[in-house]
């Protein structure tokens, strides 16, 4: 496997979860190895912090549940689900070995036993057919609009392959809602807005994300 590009400095960021989610008052924390510049799958995007907090706040729903995270990158939401007792498969683009390798390191660092799987959206490799998640997570996976159709194809397949499942995503509206709405109709998905990113975040986390707006949505077939 390829390793992280040498020119980019990596760091470990610590993310607290609990009543106050602060260093002094938390239930647990997750350490994430990331690089210090924004990078597609090697950086904790704000949507990931928001989705991870949503998972924590919905914690009673995650114990013993099967979860697949798509485009997981640094994987914070999936790791919170694993910490809460979910059976988690973290996936990212099978063509980006450096991202998958980093996911493995992060799981080891946090002593969490998640399966890591290369899964490229819109590609129909054999392991995809064995996935039957109850919850599909995806933080900031609506990023490049040229990938949206492939993402929706994979999400729709997983929702159909696992009746009763839902896709919970946070996204940063970079390209307008119209394309997303068009694709939802095309793929026959129903969507409901769950929360505005900042409405439920502890103050300490919201202030660290100021100016980066995201919304949490729930998709079903
Ligand atoms: C903006 S990053 C978000 C990463 C992470 N979920 C977060 O919020 O920190 C988008 C992620 O989608 C993954 N991705 C992009 N295109 C993909 C594709 N065609 N198939 C699978 N994963 C893809 C990238 O590797 C990257 O990890």
UniProtKB/TrEMBL annotation:
Per the UniProt entry, what species is this protein from, by scientific name?
Answer: Dioscorea alata (Purple yam)
* Domain of life, per lineage: Eukaryota
**UniProt EC number:** 2.1.1.60
Alphabetical UniProt keywords: Methyltransferase, Transferase
User: Which top EC class applies here?
Assistant: transferase
Q: What is this protein called?
A: Calmodulin-lysine N-methyltransferase protein
